[in-house]
Amino acid sequence: MFGIGLPELIVIALVSIILIKPDDLPAFFRAVGRTYAKAKKAYREVSAIKDDFVRAVNDAASLETRPHPARNDASEGATDTNASALPTPLAEKTHDEGERAGKP
Predict the structure, then answer these.
(1) For residue 16, what are the contacts with CB-CB under 8 A and spacing of at least 6?
(2) Is residue 87 part of a domain?
(3) Which domain covers residue 41, as residue numbers?
(4) Residue 38 covered by a domain
(5) pLDDT tens per residue, range 4-58
(6) In this structure, is residue 55 part of a structural domain?
């Protein structure tokens, strides 16, 4: 617990008894206990927010590395339909087409 051992706790108790009236000690330690509980709750909340953030970042990173199936299907389909609409290269023209154009 914060590196505080039994000898340190005894010193803290003796100093608190000297500085704080014995009648006020129960209220003082109740206030210390409540403050400790609030700090512990705040730590848990911050830790949960950090864990959620790290999980969201990891999920986003895994989505970026994984290929998207709809994109792959759409791009493959687009290349197939566009390929048939392209004109044929000159090298693929038949000899008959060249003669019709007036070339030997």
Answers:
(1) 25, 28
(2) no
(3) 21-63
(4) yes
(5) 788 888 898 888 888 888 888 889 889 989 999 999 999 999 999 999 999 999 9
(6) yes
